[in-house]
Amino acid sequence: MATEVLVPVLGESITEATLGEWLKQPGDAVAVDEPIASLETDKVSIEVPSPVAGTMGDHAVKVGDTVEVGAMIATIDAGDGAAKSASAPQPAVTESAAPAPATSAPEAAGDGPAALSPSVRRAVLEHGVDPATIKGSGKDGRITKEDVVAAASKPAPAAAAPAPAAAPSPAASGGRNEERVRMTRLRQTIAKRLKEAQNTAALLTTFNDVDMTAVIEARTKYKDLFEKKHGVRLGFMGFFVKAACMALKDVPSVNASIDGDDIVYHDYADISVAVSSPGGLVVPVIRDADQMSVATVEKTIGDFGRRAKDGALKMEEMKGGTFTISNGGVFGSLMSTPIINPPQSAVLGLHRIEDRAVVVNGQIVVRPMMYLALSYDHRLIDGREAVTFLVALKNAIEDPTRILIDL
Q1: Verdict on whether the full-model pTM lies above 0.70
Q2: In sequence order, what are the beta bridge partners of 203?
Q3: Is 382 marked active-site?
Q4: Beta bridge partners of 285
Q5: Where are the alpha helices (DSSP H) in 144-236?
Q6: How far is CA 376 from CA 145, 269, 284, in A?
Q7: Active-site residue 209, yes or no?
Q8: pLDDT-derived band at 323, boundaries 50, 70, 90
Q9: Which is the catalytic residue, given 209, 303, 310, 382?
Q10: Within this chain, do residues 254 and 137 fall inside the same structural domain, yes or no?
Q11: Which of 28, 157, 394, 403 has the highest local Cβ count within 10 Å?
């Protein structure tokens, strides 16, 4: 008897998703709660688990199709599907029941009982390794990202030598090729929201710079003790989040939002932090950041970053937020004009730190400087308020003691 696999509840106000990939093919053995497909929503990727153990039946939808909550996407045939692979030379957890060409990494990654998670599949494609040659170290023999990285770091086998035989095609190097790839639902949502922000808000960006000497010295002096006590590295984001929370109290309009003809002021600071994921930029929210210590902020951001790479962030973690901080400096950005994340009214852009000549007490000295950029909705925030916010932030970073005594 076949069991239907239905699209699970995706979250509040989310009624549909796009089928990103099939992790199981018809005929594959499936265990209870084993992921069989990946769905892409407006914000995150969600794995669909099998409701029963058995054998993967027919796919009711194709990759790229839009599916609604509660819709049937596949069937699972009753019975212990693992038994069908018992006669294979290798254990079922490492051998695919339906052989697939080893030359096709995307197909190989989706076959076999030990289906690869989305993060592992991305690592396989990124490093160009054949998952069939990797011995999994995870639970039940599943391949982990670390297994893929380790396999990619090994020297290429001698069998790969015949590759130069395909070289005599110089004409291809001068070809004009194109590739058409459908935008992911996440990328479509990012594009839509950014354009809406430009069309709705009166966007303006104000700049300042900050001397990072004091923060760098504090970080260098205490980073080992900090990591030993709190189990997380001391970075710069902890300082900036706390400094921003202080500045938001001084200039509450930067932490406010427009709702129709009303202005909504918040007496709390829920800070959205922009982090990279394989599908694009996502902004999980640090709730009540103004009540947190620097250590708690650093732990929260580190957790967000790790789970964003694995596609494991939850939708509720990216809802809300009263103010956003985006650190383009990690990619080498010198200066930018970030776009606000509606309904928020402002976003702070951080950039790379570089030594520059500045004048201090009448003397030209070299200091580690960073440009700050505050983009804001001019309908709500005046230029005076934007400058006041940046100056308050600058003062706190250049004298971190202010953060400790809330000055």
Answers
A1: no
A2: 377
A3: yes
A4: 272
A5: 145-153, 170-173, 185-200, 213-230
A6: 39, 16, 20
A7: no
A8: very high
A9: 382
A10: no
A11: 28
